[in-house]
Amino acid sequence: MATLIFTRQLARFTDVPEIQTDATTLRAGLETAFSVNPRLRSYLLDDQGSLRPNVAIFIDGHTVRDRVHLDVPLGVGSTVHVLQALSGG
Fold first, then answer.
1. Sorting pLDDT into bands at 50, 70 and 90, what band is 72?
2. What CATH number does the domain containing 67 carry?
3. Residue 87: what pLDDT?
4. pLDDT at position 89
């Protein structure tokens, strides 16, 4: 099973900071998270289903670059970190 881990900044959107999923793609894994916490969807994805600019996702330590399709494969033991992308100075 892959593990999706949500940072503290997302705590107001999800009561479950860590989710286990049998999903084989990132999008399917996110859908698992959305089924548990529907409010999370509108924070992570825009109206077209693309990843919002204020969100960063790492799979097994690698940045997700395709913010539109989210069809990145998940392995059985993959770890997905979902966090708020902060900027400023």
1. very high
2. 3.10.20.30
3. 64
4. 53
